[in-house]
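> example.struct
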């Protein structure tokens, strides 16, 4: 850095030099940046010295919490031993072999014995791009080149690269990027609380959602539909729980039409729901599982596509004829990331963080329900494990929702920040989410809810104005 540059505030240098992801440029130039200086456990410290309880775990990812010296020691040892080597063309390294075995072992323990191989990447988006390509590859190898379309859901979030961004079902991510690409279809968002017809039971709602999917398959022709992708619990859409019987019925439809099921467990994986994976916890039978975030608790960018034996067999049989699978990245199977993944799992197992997520998550949800559940503009407090949401409504009795342009959840989120708690306003509907590190204690949950409750009280007059009538 030049000496003159040192004299400028860090905020100015940021505005002059950084192109931030998912950020409004004009707003940032007026109000940004908010600089985070450090973190420990569930707490962040910003440059103003404020103590913030991170009820986002970053972006749903720092599952073991911040500042773990054991992770720092692992990184140091791994870098000193083998800072990098690729795993192309059959090369390998011990940490990546052990991590693949360990991840599969966790799946097998939870009953998903059909999952058989792990392909590593660096982020959830590239893993879903890998899946997008794998589905095509699989059907080309088995002589079904017309079977290529993928069904996703409105409100889904699967990342923002070209294919993953197309699978994502939230319009703001498509606007002006010419997405989605052809061959990606979106079926309705299965969020009962918001999208049920008046008087419709949850079972009837599920049946309507499934009938719509069957309708899409019939319209397109099953011979053209390759896969269905779903987050077991939709995260970015607003922590949307599947309606009763949804996945059981969906699985039957997919099996009947020879359509692969991709479970995107980028958020739900590695303990967040109070189970190691939603696949086991919710008894799903995916052909491919996407993992990222919690696999290293975000201490290193690692993702994975875990594939079933059924897919592997097709790849294996075609191998002599098709030659090497020409897909992979420089950092696929990075030895340092893999070593951190192993230590991350050690910590989770030793400290019982999956069980803690179930227990403290249930407590956090109860505390939130008690403190704000009867608030006039809180429609629903829901979730599973440490994946919780507060959804806002303008009129509870009439089930009237706020004008999306009002951004009420952003108003509450901003107030929450002022009160020292980070709870994320999400981009699809009026929801703020709670997904703290899984090491959150009961006392920390109490403190977070106390702060959030005060923030909501402070935001209430503004919400009342926006609720209209
Ligand atoms: C379910 C899901 N899939 C994929 C992604 C994309 O992951 P990344 O941001 O690491 O590319 C995310 C990110 O939040 C996610 O929530």
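> example.seq
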């Amino acid at each position: 850095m030049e000496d003159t540059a040192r004299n400028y505030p860090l905020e100015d240098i940021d505005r002059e030099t950084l192109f931030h992801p998912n950020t409004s440029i004009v707003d940032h130039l007026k109000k940004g940046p908010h600089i985070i200086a450090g973190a420990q456990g569930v707490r962040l410290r910003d440059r103003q010295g404020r103590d913030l309880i991170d009820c986002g775990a970053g972006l749903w990812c720092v599952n073991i919490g911040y500042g773990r010296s054991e992770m720092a020691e692992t990184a140091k040892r791994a870098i000193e031993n083998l800072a990098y080597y690729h795993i192309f063309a059959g090369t390998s390294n011990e940490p990546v072999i052990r991590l693949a075995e360990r991840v599969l072992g966790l799946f097998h323990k939870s009953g998903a014995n059909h999952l058989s191989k792990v392909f590593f990447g660096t982020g959830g988006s590239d893993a879903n791009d890998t899946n997008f390509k794998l589905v095509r590859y699989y059907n080309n190898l088995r002589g079904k080149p017309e079977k290529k379309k993928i069904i996703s859901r409105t409100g889904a979030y699967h990342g923002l690269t070209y294919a993953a961004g197309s699978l994502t079902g939230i319009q703001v991510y498509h606007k002006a990027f010419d997405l989605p690409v052809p061959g990606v279809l979106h079926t309705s968002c299965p969020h009962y609380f918001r999208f049920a017809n008046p008087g419709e039971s949850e079972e009837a709602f599920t049946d309507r959602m499934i009938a719509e999917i069957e309708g899409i398959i019939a319209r397109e022709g099953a011979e053209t539909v390759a896969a269905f992708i779903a987050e077991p619990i939709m995260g970015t859409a607003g922590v949307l729980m599947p309606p009763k019987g949804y996945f059981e019925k969906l699985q039957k439809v997919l099996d009947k039409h020879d359509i692969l099921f991709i479970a995107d467990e980028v958020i739900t994986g590695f303990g967040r729901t109070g189970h190691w994976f939603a696949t086991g916890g919710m008894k799903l039978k995916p052909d491919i599982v996407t993992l990222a975030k919690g696999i290293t608790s975000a201490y290193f960018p690692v993702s994975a596509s875990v594939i079933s034996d059924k897919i592997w067999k097709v790849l294996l049989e075609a191998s002599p004829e098709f030659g090497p699978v020409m897909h992979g990245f420089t950092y696929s199977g990075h030895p340092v990331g893999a070593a951190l993944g192993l230590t991350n799992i050690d910590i989770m197992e030793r400290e019982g963080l999956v069980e803690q997520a179930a227990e403290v998550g249930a407590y956090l949800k109860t505390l939130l329900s008690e403190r704000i559940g009867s608030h006039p503009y809180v429609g629903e407090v829901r979730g599973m494990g440490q994946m919780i949401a507060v959804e806002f409504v303008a009129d509870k009795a009439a089930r009237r929702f706020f004008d999306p342009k009002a951004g009420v959840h952003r108003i509450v989120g901003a107030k929450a920040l002022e009160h020292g708690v980070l709870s994320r306003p999400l981009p699809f509907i009026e929801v703020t989410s709670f997904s703290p590190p899984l090491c959150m204690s009961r006392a920390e949950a109490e403190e977070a809810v106390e702060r959030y409750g005060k923030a909501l009280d402070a935001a209430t007059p503004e919400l009342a104005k926006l609720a209209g009538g």
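> remarks
Residues 59, 123-125, 128, 157-159, 231, 235-236, 264, 266-267, 292 surround pyridoxal-5'-phosphate (CB under 6 Å).
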